Amino acid sequence: MLSPAQAQERCQALIERAMRAGADAGDVVYLANSSESVSVRLGKLEDVERSESENVSLRVFVGGASASIGSTDMGDAALDELAARAVAMARLAPADKYAGLAPEELLFRGTPPALDLDDGRETAPQELRRIAEETEDAARAVPGVTNSEGGSAGSGRGVVALVTSHGFAGAYAASSHSISASVIAGEGDAMQRDYCWRSAHHAADLLSPAEIGRRAATRTVARLNPGRVKSGAYPVVFDPRVGGSLIGHLLGAISGSAIARRASFLLEKDGAQIFDPSITITEDPLRPRGLRSRPFDGEGLAVAPRNLVENGRLTGWLMDSAAARQLGGTPTGHASRGGGGAPHIAAGNVVLQPGSAAPAALMADIADGIYVTELIGMGVNGVTGDYSRGASGYRIVNGEIAGPIAEFTVAGNLIDMFAALVPANDLDIHRGIDVPTLRIDGMSVAGD
């Protein structure tokens, strides 16, 4: 894997070759990752994995058409061939009036912000094994745990570089560390499983192995002997582990590409009041050590904190340059790049800001309700907003979380769900999308 400076140099060399080969414009993305993980099960070594990947992707524009091509070979001869082939492909491709690089005047200039994404630590396999063993041991020590799917620990590092033909060049590195455990309680048909998993750029930001194991086991044992719930309309409370998926659906619906395709349930609702006025949803891609932090977007534009929802109102779409051209707007710094091809749209470090009530107070007036801790399936229609997902969790009886329940479905429409959403005050920021406990009244629950 190249250093950020070396990666940027290779990208620059490739874009120069593409321009000499006849491209009108182009950009190059370099992505590399190396990672190692160790898994144990029932106290014994289960698996050791190491993966390394390195890819450079060239996108060129010729006469209004574009083509993309990638390679894992960074040598000069390979770059020569890559540039020639990409230009030849673009000359045969159909024109796309919306394709192109980001506006030059909007490119990020200056010193990249210090985001502290790389702790410079490489965890040895022996240390990963010790962490995995400690995690599983803590989980198996909880009464009621009868089996284990394993404990695991991993670490890695990645490098990203981007160079465009019209003046942008940047690169950065990021480290990653993770710990997880998954265990089983009960026997035979009555078995239940649950897990706990954490990931961070800095190893120091993780929960301790013992705490991750304990949480996995406590969650698992609490699920034993689930009952069923009668079908009806209920107040539904979403645990923070699953509540973030609701905001994920919001992000998909305000993506400029979805709006341009007219494939969003929030079409024509820019600026509309879709949440209670107390709701604010923020994005901060410049948060130090944030899981989705980055110094620039996938087109070389600046990224910045913003409110996606303010006082309950949408503040605009998330747009890369192609979507902005289609919608007659300005790109918002939300372009993201994968292994190759055109950018896609992504947001970074999204947070639904907390309310004022503790979770217990949020549930205090619920005589009969549902507390959801797991969602199953993908029954969400991004065009209509219709929402229906399998779930498991717990009953809420007289304001208290009661026994576990399983095999039921929660359903509604996301527009109605957003309007009814009430957050608690227990926000804990450690994911890419973070929310507190969320309450939504009047959802349809299908059970017995």
TrEMBL record:
Coiled coil feature spans: none
One Pfam family of this chain: PmbA_TldD_3rd
Residue ranges of every copy of the Metalloprotease TldD/E central domain listed in the record: 122-224
Highest taxon of the lineage: Bacteria
Residue ranges annotated for the Metalloprotease TldD/E N-terminal domain, each copy included: 27-90
InterPro entries: Metalloprtase-TldD/E_C, Metalloprtase-TldD/E_cen_dom, Metalloprtase-TldD/E_N, PmbA, TldD/PmbA_N, TldD/PmbA_sf
Listed Gene3D superfamilies: PmbA/TldD superfamily
Domain Metalloprotease TldD/E C-terminal: 231-447
Membership in a protein family: Belongs to the peptidase U62 family.
Descriptive protein name: TldD/PmbA family protein
Originating organism: Novosphingobium cyanobacteriorum
